[in-house]
Amino acid sequence: MFFLSSQTIRRHRHLYAGSFVALAVGVFLLGLAATATAATIAHGTANLVSITVTTLGDADAAPRPVKVPMSGEDVSGLQVVLSLVGTISGFITIFVIASTFAFAVASRRQELGLLRLIGATPRQVRRMIIGEALVVAVAASLTGALLAQLATPLLLSQASYTELAPVKLEPASPWVPLAIAVGIGLVVAMLGARSAARRAGRVGPIDALREASLESARIGPVRVIFGLLFLAGAIAMLALIRPSSGEGVVPLSMFTPMVLVVALTLLAPLIVPLLGRLWAMPLVAWTHVSGRLARSNVIATPRRSASLAAPILAISAVAGSMVLSLSFAADSAAATIRDTLRAPIVVTAQSMPTVSGVGAVDAGLPVQFVRAGAEDAQLEDAEGIDPAIASQTRALTPLSGDLSQLTGNTVAVSKQMAGFEHYQVGDEVPATFLDHQAVKLRIVAIVPDGLGVNPDFLLPLDLVRQHNPTAKPERLFVQPAPGVDPTELVTRLEHAVLATAWEADQADGVRQGNQLGLVLLLGPAAFYSAIAIANTLLMGSLQRRQEFVTSRLLGATPNQIRRMVLWESSLVGLVALSLGTAITVTVGILIRHAMTAGVADVPVTVPWGILLGIGGLCLTLAVGSALAPTSYILRVVSQETVVHQRQ
Amino acid sequence: MTATAPSYPSVVPESAPALVLDGITKTYRSKAGAVDALRGVTYHFPRGSFTAVMGPSGSGKSTLLQCAAGLDQPTTGVVVLGGVTLRGLSEVALTKLRREEMGFVFQAYNLLPSLTVYDNVALPLRLTGKRPQRAEVHAVLEQVGLGDKVKRRPAELSGGQQQRVAIARALITRPSVFFADEPTGALDSNSSRQVLSLLREATDRAGQTVVMVTHDPVAAAYAERVVFLSDGLIAGHLDRGTPGQIAAAMSDLER
Ligand SMILES: Nc1ncnc2c1ncn2[C@@H]1O[C@H](COP(=O)(O)OP(=O)(O)OP(=O)(O)O)[C@@H](O)[C@H]1O
Ligand SMILES: [Mg+2]
């Protein structure tokens, strides 16, 4: 059957082009993630500076020594991002590949029927489809791997010396990582092809004699049940987005829309016709025939409309929710910074000369220590402060305990950290400083969260100086002497800005950091969805050749057909976008509520430009990829005359 | 006019018919209601015969052919092809039987567009797992007069040439029964003549059996017997009729 596969695949190039591109890009991203991970591992083993700490142990785990890499060499941030990118790429590739293969089979019923008619067994047909998929998969995987190999140095040079990987990364041996990526690509393709092949095996010889099968409008009970299960799961996840979930809300804002998308995609054959009817109302009122035709086409083939809507729904919901959530996260970060910083002036220097009119200078010393937990140990950021000064310049009023006792081997812990670790005043935190000295830090106070201003652990200044004599402040919070106008004082200080300006800078920094994350995580997903949207609509239009021909023979002008396709694809796009918007708004509102609990006057930044851009892009892509093949068909058809009518 | 000495080797006694339909009914059920396409058809197709099936549109001709070839299950009744009862055969057994004992030619869409003429003809052999012999494929293509079009693809052939490729593909496995549904329906009279002669030759030279559905009295006249179908029942038959006689019989039927 391999002979057949290699012959037929040439004929069905356009059917497989989408699968090829999607898989090649998937393997490319997987390969890139793998080679970059290999580079970080190679770097880690080559010159890792670390501290060995013994964990505390608990009922389930005996104490054991663990190596904790020092911050200067830490590339684990990059590794986390890379594994996320790899996971998302793999996940979406399965979806796209499965749907394009299924489409390829559905549009070839007659041909497969003919094969069965002249003596191919169902098994042989299955093997042919698998063979075709294998040819595409091998070619695509190798192409993707090659591209990944070419792009690796570029990625590593971009990733070096960044927040995620503050070191220089060199490409490692590419064979193992690329082999893994190619292997995953092949497995994903085969998984996607298997269900398509199984369906192809069910095509009977009689299908060779029948017109392209009309879809059955019924949607299976299994599909509905799974749709409802996913919906229930999504609702449970939505319920988790609340103030007490802490940092967990950010991943929730990413995965909840995905689950919602799966649920709505499964239920789409029920929902799409309803929404389609709604959106079609103005269209029908406005146009003559074309709007009406478009409406009946969308409503009469719910399954087809649903599969056209699916990729648009997916990307608009996932991207919309993430963009909105991260913007709200930045809003709440800005509000927290504003509320935490009390000093009106910030000096961005390591020290400052004595100037008249200065009341107090809060020169906190940044430091790191390794905190041993029950099962592992972690590098923590801390700051040495003078509690008397810091409680004037920052909002540090303890929620419990007493900050003035911050002397000797003591620590003040943020509310969030205390919540995670169930710390209470009087508990001891086992810490190992980077001079390898281990101490037990007694908790004297729990203070409010001050993300962006305070780290989770505040130590006495002397303790920091003792373990790290070279520590230098990164910024100074300055309180003017009583009666001195800060706006006047700031002009007399070098490297000084008003706190409001510094706060805005910090918030911008958070937004920029978010942007990088968005691009890294959403980039591949958006790219895939674009392929999927173009793919399904393109093939959807190509499949309707016969219908267009008949319409032309019945007297429809090419323009009427084009308008019908235009309204139809817009209708599908609008239905999908309205579902995507509903998901985005729901997630956005919950996230906002979760993040702003307890903070007053949080600014609202809705990135309208990006959100509208996503919607506009989806619509343009959908309409464009439906119209282009239609125009092509109409041009070809006008030169043909014979319509084959079967017996 | 019946062939006297069939050369086709078979374990079945030579007197036994090639194809037996016994009390075939077929009811299509759909949302719109049930349609009785066949209402009890019993007929024996003798070995080496060329039979034309005629009847008004919707009389069940295509349904009859599909049931006889095992492409569709009759609702009741038995089909016996070359001594094998079709009912109860597995999908794979049916496929093997189709591969070895049956050849098909339809009005349109008979060929795989991606394959060359040569590969289309050789395909049934490949499907059985045999390596096609070049000489064998070329011989069959010569037989249908397409020895010079071996490398073409279907899209580069005329309708009549495509039908002849389909016949060549059916011939190569030396099937005992040919099923043809309006094989000349889309052809001009010249191409029709070539295709019909090839089918006639199959019965005369190789003792193969041909069952052909047609609307064309001229085409039907190539058969030694025309069976008339009306409303899912056999309404009669005409032996060695001229096109004029057949046309007259048809218009009687349609009245
Ligand atoms: N798949 C099907 N589902 C439902 N009804 C069918 C189906 N196929 C055929 N029929 C009906 O069965 C009857 C016989 O159809 P059939 O195709 O056998 O007629 P025919 O004699 O071949 O007609 P024609 O000369 O027009 O090809 C018709 O009434 C037709 O509507
Ligand atoms: Mg028919």
From TrEMBL, chain A:
InterPro entries: ABC3_permease_C, Macrolide_Exporter_MacB. It holds the Pfam family FtsX. It is found in: Cell membrane. Its main location: membrane. GO terms for cellular component: plasma membrane. The chain crosses the membrane at residues 80-106, 133-155, 175-193, 220-241, 261-287, 308-330, 516-538, 571-594, 606-628. It comes from the Bacteria. Residues 1-38 form the signal peptide. One of its GO terms (molecular function) is transmembrane transporter activity. It is a multi-pass membrane protein. The keyword Nucleus does not apply. Residues 85-202, 526-635 form the ABC3 transporter permease C-terminal domain. Keywords: Cell membrane, Membrane, Signal, Transmembrane, Transmembrane helix. Belongs to the ABC-4 integral membrane protein family. This is ABC transporter permease. The lineage of its organism: Bacteria, Bacillati, Actinomycetota, Actinomycetes, Propionibacteriales.
From TrEMBL, chain B:
One of its GO terms (cellular component) is membrane protein complex. It comes from the Bacteria. The keyword Cytoplasm does not apply. CDD domains: ABC_MJ0796_LolCDE_FtsE. One of its GO terms (molecular function) is ATP hydrolysis activity. Residues 19-254 form the ABC transporter domain. Keywords: ATP-binding, Nucleotide-binding, Transport. This is ABC transporter ATP-binding protein. It comes from Kribbella antibiotica.
